[in-house]
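Aim 2, interim progress: modelling of the manganese (II) ion-bound target.
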Amino acid sequence: MPLFKKVLYPTDFSDLAEVALDYVKKLKEAGAQEVVVLHVIHPLEFSLPQFDDPFALDVATIYAHIPEIEKAILESHEEALKKIEEELKGLGFKVKTVMTVGEPADEIVNVAKQEQVKVIVMGYHGKGLLERILEMGSTTRAVIEKAHCPVLVVKKEG
Ligand code: ATP
Ligand code: MN
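Predicted structure of the complex, ligand included:
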């Protein structure tokens, strides 16, 4: 069985995540056949005042309780996932898209385990001293620490 048969590609739809997508495509040469494309919704992105624990929600519940203008944001995320799905299918990958609610790093690690992927491919910004001290931009670092499988970390430059 190919080493990297099944891949998890978590995306926040940023330029950096797009660079990571190029590496997902390149993994085809290393035997990748299936890709799970994941977007994690941080519940605090939306106005959900009536919930004590917004992290315990699912996407459907969020849809039902946010104003129209925020629904448009969620729909655009869904469209963005769909677009990546079509792109990868066009290259011959089997694709599954997933949207969950939670803390991005925790959800990435959970979905990786549930889906039994062989590798996670994601972006990482080289951070300056201040960001390092404040431990900012640490989604990738947290995933590296907690993931059950290898993580392929892609930097934008260098
Ligand atoms: P900061 O969040 O401090 O602005 P950043 O966004 O530059 O920093 P990270 O949040 O660590 O850095 O993101 C790095 C990578 O993690 C992204 O390229 C993407 O692959 C993944 N990622 C981040 N947030 C999410 C999310 N909400 N859903 C799925 N993947 C994500
Ligand atoms: Mn981020």
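Residues 68-90 form the longest helix (23 residues). Residues 19 and 156 are 7 Å apart (CA to CA).
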